[in-house]
Amino acid sequence: MENKWVRAALPALLIHGSIGTVYAWSVFKQAVADYIGASVPNVEWAFSIAILFLGLSAAALGHFVEQDIKKSALLSTLFLWLG
C-alpha cells in the first residue's frame, strides 16, 4: 500500500536537506580557513557565492520543482553528494 504522505514528505526532506547544507558554513569556515592557510574574512566570500547561486537556482528552477517533485528531489540529492 502506498502512503501519499510518505511519497510527498521524502522528496521534500531530501530537497530541504540538500539546500540546508549551505547554512552549515558557519560551523566549518574556521576549519576551512585553517586548512588553506587563510583568514576567515578571506574565505567568507564562499558563503555569499553559495547563497547567490541558491537564490538564482530557486528563481530559475522553481517551476521545475513544482512540476516533478520526485525528479527534482533525486537531482538535488545527487548534486549534494557529488558536490
What are the main properties of this structure?
single chain, 83 residues, mainly alpha, 84% helix
| Number of β-strand runs | 0
For the sheet with most strands, the description reads: none
Return the domain count: 1
Calculate the terminal CA-CA distance, rounded to whole Å. Answer: 35 Å
Number of H/I helices: 5
| Parts with pLDDT < 50 across at least 5 consecutive residues | none
Using the alpha-carbon principal axes, give the shape: elongated
Percentage of residues in helical conformation? over 70%
Amount of beta strand = under 5%
Give the oligomer, counting copies of the same chain as homo and different chains as hetero. Answer: single chain
Mean pLDDT across the residues is 81
Order of helices and strands: HHHHH
Q: Pairing-aware structural class of the strands and helices?
A: mainly alpha
Topology of this protein?
Elements: H1 4-20, H2 25-36, H3 40-43, H4 45-67, H5 69-82
Helix pairs in contact: 1-5, 4-5
What does this structure look like?
The protein has helices at residues 4-20, 25-36, 40-43, 45-67, 69-82. It is an all-alpha fold and 83 residues long. It has one domain (4-82). It is elongated, with a radius of gyration of 16 Å.
Give the gist of this structure:
The chain has helices at 4-20, 25-36, 40-43, 45-67, 69-82. The chain is mostly helical and 83 residues long.
